[in-house]
Prior knowledge:
The chain is α/β, with parallel strands linked by helices. The protein is 38% helix and 25% strand. It has a single domain (2-230), classed as Rossmann fold, CATH 3.40.50. The protein has ten helices and ten strands. The longest helix is centred in the last third of the chain and has 16 residues, at 166-181.
Amino acid sequence: MLAVKNLSVSYGHIDALKDVSLNVGEGSIVSIIGSNGAGKTTMLNTISGLVKLKKGVIEFEGSSLGQIPQNVVKRGIVHVPEGRKVFSGLTIKENLVMGGYLLKDKKRLNENIDKMFKMFPILRERQDQHAGTLSGGEQQMLAICRGLMSEPKMVLLDEPSLGLSPIMAKEVFKIIQAIRDNGITVMLVEQNAKKALALSDYAYVLENGKIIMSGEGRKLLCDPAVKKAYLGEKKEEAHE
Length: 240
């Protein structure tokens, strides 16, 4: 569905991504894990057109994606950035309307709003409340819902559980699985590597702008090197 080929991105003289290639299959959850500064967010920002590539190709459904953000959205890719960037001065319902700006059919727009409210009843109860007054977890739910309003084929999620309580983070991971189960492809950058790998069909390990390892999520979850570097687990010493 998505193919990134030999992608390089620089910020001035700093190389953020170095000849990176990866694939995201339709209907899957693919995660990118790695330490801070590895280039994970840069990857998502480049796909969505927020950061310009230095070289390489990004293809979506067999043709060049291009790097004009509004055209990326029109092609069916929505980016939910880190930090729950909701429109704090607008109500919950107004945020959802903004998310569905590509939908010209008002009936369809209202149907999608109703779908979001069914998915998250708490948002329906507070639909006239300003988004800035919601808790962090509620804002994350709203940010994801706003992204889904345009009926995307693929969602890019950047650190969706960051700063959330364990209970709210658990809910967010359930939402991610539900998105995939509804036929929407998910590309996930997540600081909770253990949860991300357990959830993912496939995963890539990014370090210093390069892919150093890849494989099925659950297989990487059991890899000793991944456990030691990213899951906070020490490699067991052999006993003679």
